[in-house]
Amino acid sequence: MLWSILAADLHPSNITAWRALLQTLDYRHEGRRRRLRFRRDPQTYLASLEECLCRSGLKS
């Protein structure tokens, strides 16, 4: 069975809900990217986190 999809079908009907969905998906993808960076090179990843903490002014 073939589906016929028109350009109007792809247009989001509720822009606010669509943007919220995109933000949620981006948040989830960022988490996956961070886990992948950690698995590839844990020492470098942790060093970069430590550097960010030092720059933010938080004491260890």
Main traits of this protein?
single chain; mainly alpha
Give the topology.
Layout: H1 7-10, H2 15-40, H3 42-56
Helix pairs in contact: 2-3
User: Distance between the terminal alpha carbons, to the nearest Å?
Assistant: 61 Å
What's the number of helices?
3
Low-pLDDT regions: none
Q: Helix/strand-derived class?
A: mainly alpha
The gyration radius over C-alpha positions equals 20 Å
Secondary-structure element series = HHH
Overall mean pLDDT score? 88
Shape: elongated
Q: Percent range for helical residues? A: over 70%
Strand content: under 5%
Largest sheet report: none
**How many β-strands, per DSSP?**
0
Task: Describe, in plain words, how this protein is organized in 3D.
This protein is 75% helix and 0% strand. It has helices at 7-10, 15-40, 42-56. The chain contains three helices and no strands. By secondary structure, the protein is mainly alpha-helical. The radius of gyration is 20 Å and the shape is elongated.
Summarize, please.
This protein is mainly alpha-helical. It is built from three helices and no strands.
